[in-house]
Design brief:
This protein is α+β, with helices and mostly antiparallel strands and 374 residues long. 47% of the residues lie in helices and 17% in strands.
Length: 374
């Protein structure tokens, strides 16, 4: 299973991780599959290698490190703040390259200073690339899930639409499809009159009772698969999606926001100008953004090589704030991907909220670039 060899510069990477004050960990290759299937995002879910234990538990080969590191942290009941570093193999189906490859990275757990921890994560990732690719120009792209969700809330979108658009953040195709539906809501798939009325009225209790009665008539178990309440909630969400059409003014504001793409040094001002002109209040999300931008600049990451792209996200469902990638020049393939995941550890079973931010580095892509330069 461990047939691949680490890259020749692996020792340099490990030394840098240790210099950055992280504890190196080695998590199990076989992992419970459910956390990845529930939280990792549609793109990664399609690429996971699944297997089954002797007891029937669904397992998978480790497709990434963030979730396993967080699970091990919870199991060890370790205190925070704590920083974990790693270098090891991950396994996933890929369109290009091998299905078994090496990643390295840092997971930073429990630091309550969001702006400082975010900036440190970006700086650590940039320092790692600068070490192993000293002659390559690096470009950093930052997005912010929290800013995007704050704009959606300020525009008055109902919860169902906010959830759909938030899930699409990070996928250009999914976001464009969602925006097209928002501009012209689909009318297909109409519900039967009794159900449609209850769903449009968002009468959860009455709709749940109605669905439970129908299931009983059909001889379906109310505990099988989804419960009547789960079905009712989903139907209400779908009814809201079909019934909402954003005003032309609000839709134009959303498109204007998504078009913001500026150097990070100008980003807080651009967001403030957008919010003022659109009459929107972005609240604490904008304050956090501005503090992070200042902290990133404090690490020496300034100039045109560091950009904020309002439409930029990463296709993992657990991100809650900062998202970022670093590439070599204008390459479309990132060398680093990372972001903030403040809800993840709670969803994985932590008793209290533990904020987190981290990044992973594709070492095989770095190896290819080093080969090109030799």
């Amino acid at each position: 299973m461990r047939g691949a060899r680490p890259p020749a510069f692996a020792d340099e990477v490990v030394a840098l991780l240790e210099q950055r004050g992280v504890g190196l960990v080695d998590v199990a290759v076989l992992q419970p599959a459910d956390p990845f299937l529930d939280m990792a995002g549609e793109d990664l879910r399609r690429r996971i290698f699944l297997t089954e234990s002797e007891t029937g538990q669904t397992l998978c080969l480790r497709p990434e490190f963030t979730i396993p590191v967080c699970l091990d942290h919870i199991a060890s009941q370790a205190g925070t703040p704590r920083r974990y570093g790693y270098l090891g193999e991950v396994f996933r189906q890929r369109r290009d390259g091998g299905n078994e490859f090496f990643q390295a990275g840092i997971e930073d757990l429990g630091d309550g200073d969001t702006a400082a921890a975010d900036a440190r994560s970006v700086a650590d990732a940039h320092a790692l690339l600068a070490l192993v690719l000293p002659k390559r120009a690096l470009s950093v792209t930052l997005g912010d899930q929290a800013i995007f969700e704050a704009v959606l809330a300020a525009l008055g979108l109902p919860r169902g639409w906010r959830m759909r658009l938030a899930r699409a953040f990070g996928s250009k195709a999914m976001l464009e499809a969602a925006l097209a539906d928002l501009a012209n809501p689909p009318r297909n798939g109409q519900l039967p009159p009794p159900v449609a009325t209850l769903a449009l009225d968002a009468d959860l209790d009455a709709l749940t009772t109605h669905i439970a009665a129908d299931m009983e008539k059909l001889g379906l178990s109310a505990s099988a698969s989804r419960t009547p309440a789960d079905i009712a909630r989903r139907l209400i969400e779908k009814a809201q999606l079909r019934s909402v059409r954003l005003s032309d003014e609000a839709f134009a504001a959303l498109k204007t926001f998504l078009a913001i793409h500026v150097p990070l040094s100008q980003a807080a001002g651009a967001l403030q100008e957008f919010a003022s002109s659109a009459g929107l209040a972005l609240g604490s999300a904008l304050d956090t953004f501005a503090a992070r931008a200042e902290a990133v600049a404090g690490h020496g990451l300034t100039g045109d090589a560091v950009h904020y792209d309002a439409a930029f996200g990463r296709p993992l469902d657990y991100y809650t704030g900062l998202v970022f990638e670093i590439a070599s020049g204008h390459s479309e393939r990132p060398l680093v991907g990372g972001g903030r995941y403040d809800r993840l550890l709670t969803l994985l079973g932590a008793k209290g909220q533990i904020p987190g931010v981290g990044f992973s580095v594709w070492l095989d892509r770095i190896e290819a670039l080093r080969g090109d330069a030799s």
